[in-house]
Amino acid sequence: MATSHYALMASLGLLPLCLRAQQPVFQQMGTVSSRVLDSGPAPQYPGGLPQLMQDLQHSVRYPAAALRAQASGTVLVEVVVEADGSVGPPRILKSPSPLLSDEVLTAVKGLHGFSPALADGKPVRGVLTCPVTFRIMGGSMGTARPSMAIAGPPQPQALPAATNSVVEKLVSFRDSTTWLDKTVRKTSVTQHYFTYDRQGRPQTHVRDFLSNGVRVASQLLRYEYRKDGKLAAKVGDHFKTEFDYRPNGGLRRVTSAYLNNKQWVVNNEALITEKVTLSAGARVISFVMRQRSADSLRTFSTIDYTVSARNTITESVMYRLNYQPLAQPIRRTFVQDTRLNPFQNLFVDQWPQNDFERAGPHNVLGETYNGRPARTMAYTYNTAGHPTRCSWGNSKSTSRTQQFAYANIVVPAPARAAGQPADSINQVSIFPNPATAVTTIRAAGIGQGEATLRIFSAGGQLQRETKYAASETRFEAAISVAGLEKGVYVVEISGHEAVAKGRLVVE
C-alpha cells in the first residue's frame, strides 16, 4: 500500500424520478437523479445535464485525508432550487465518510445559474439529487487511469499511517419527541449532521426540522475559529453565535444574533463568570442570560452551576426566570455516567446554558427538580463507549429519543507531550490474546478521566486511536480487531497520570 498510487473516479449523471415521460434516462458516465414536487421538467442547469456533470468532474477532488483513511463509496447530495431560482444549501442524504461529504458540498456550492422547474408553465420548487462516487484505483498513475478520471493534477500518495490518527466523531444526531394528545400522535424531530475539518474540528452543522415526518425548515451553520484554535463563531445565512474568551482561555460571553434588513441584531447573550472556588477543585460558575425585549437586552434568567473537579455539573440553582426574580429558587441536581460525551465542542443548542449542561465530559444519566426526580435517561453504547441511543419520558403522554451515529475521522497524529509519564509495560491486560474478533483491554493506574487508546504496528505505525473514559480504579474497553492484519501490535493507553503499554496478537 505504501508504494501504490491512487486516482479518483467520480461517477455522475441523471436518473429522473418524476420526469414528464416517467422513464429513466441513462447517461454513458453514470446517473444523477432529479425530482420535482409536481409533474413537469426538473430544475435546469446552464448547458444541461452534461455540463453539470462536467463542472462537477472538474471541481471534485479526492481529499488527501480520505485517501489516508481509505474512505470510498457514493455520496448522495441534494440541491433544492426554489421557484424564484434561488438555490438552498446543499444537503448530504447519504455518505460513507464526512471527509467525502465535505468535498462534495464544496463542489456543489460552486455551481451557479440553475433555472427552476416548471409545472403547467409556472416555476415551482424542484429538487436535484446527485450521486458522486469515489473509488480508489491501485497501481501507477500511468496504468490506473479510471474510465472517468477527474481533470487536474495527480492525486497525492497515501501518507504513512504514523503521521495520522483516526478518531471517532459524531456525524449524525436525531432528536425525536412524541406527544400523545388523546388520540392524536404528534412527533417533532430535529436531525443534526456534522462534518469536520482536516484537524478534526467541527466544520459544518446542518439542522433539519421535521413535523410528523415532513421537513419544515433547514439550517446550515459553519464553524469559524480564531488563530489560537478556539471557536470564534457558528455562522448561518440568517443566524450566528459568537464566542468571547478571557485572557486565561475561559469562556466569557456567548452572543446570538439574527439578520434583519442586512444588519445583525443581537437577540440574546450569556455572561459567564466564575463566582466561587470550592474545596477539592470544584467551583461555582454563574450564567446571566440576557434576552431582547422590545428594543433592549434584559436579564431573562440567572443560574449558578456547581462544577466538580472533573468538569461535570453536579447542581444548578436558578434565581431569576422570565425577567423576574423567583420567590423560591429552582434547584436541580445532575448525575453523569463515566462514558465520553460526543457533544463536547459542538455547541448544538442556540441557548448557551443548554449547551453548558449537555456538553460536559460525560453524559447526563438523570436529574432532580427541587428534590424530586425529574427524568432518568436510558443509554446504549457502542464498543468505544459512545452513546448510540438515549431515551426517556417526561410523562405518560410524552417520550423523547435521541439516536447517535459516528464515523472515523483522520486527523494529524498528536505529538508526545514533554514530560509525559514513563511507560509501564505490566499494567495492561488483554483477553483473549491472540484475538480473532473482539478483545477486552484493561489497564490500571493511568488516572481518572479521558484516556486515549492507540494501536501501533510492530514497525511503529499508528493504526487506530480512540478516546475513552477511565474510572478511578481502572480503564476497560472492548475493541474489534476487524481490519487489522494478522500480526503483533503494541497497545498504548495514555491517561492523566501514566501511560500503559501491552502487546496484542491478531490471528
Gist?
With 507 residues, the chain is mainly β. The chain has three domains: 33-159, TolA/TonB C-terminal domain; 164-410, Porin, CATH 2.40.160.150; 414-506, Macroglobulin (MG2) domain (Immunoglobulin-like, Sandwich), CATH 2.60.40. It is built from four helices and 31 strands.
SSE topology sketch:
Blueprint: E1 33-36, H1 48-59, H2 64-68, E2 73-81, E3 91-94, H3 98-109, E4 117-119, E5 122-124, E6 126-134, E7 164-181, E8 184-196, E9 202-211, E10 214-225, E11 231-235, E12 239-245, E13 251-260, E14 263-277, E15 283-293, E16 296-307, E17 313-321, E18 324-340, H4 352-358, E19 362-369, E20 372-376, E21 378-381, E22 387-395, E23 398-412, E24 423-424, E25 428-431, E26 438-444, E27 449-457, E28 462-470, E29 474-480, E30 487-494, E31 499-506
Give an account of the 3D structure.
The chain has 507 residues and is mostly beta strands. It folds into three domains: 33-159, TonB (TolA/TonB C-terminal domain); 164-410, Beta Barrel (Porin); 414-506, Immunoglobulin-like (Sandwich). It is built from four helices and 31 strands. It has helices at residues 48-59, 64-68, 98-109, 352-358, and strands spanning 33-36, 73-81, 91-94, 117-119, 122-124, 126-134, 164-181, 184-196, 202-211, 214-225, 231-235, 239-245, 251-260, 263-277, 283-293, 296-307, 313-321, 324-340, 362-369, 372-376, 378-381, 387-395, 398-412, 423-424, 428-431, 438-444, 449-457, 462-470, 474-480, 487-494, 499-506. The strands form five sheets. The protein has a 17-stranded antiparallel sheet, sandwiched between helices. The protein is globular. The model is unreliable at 1-40, 138-162 and 416-426 (pLDDT under 50).
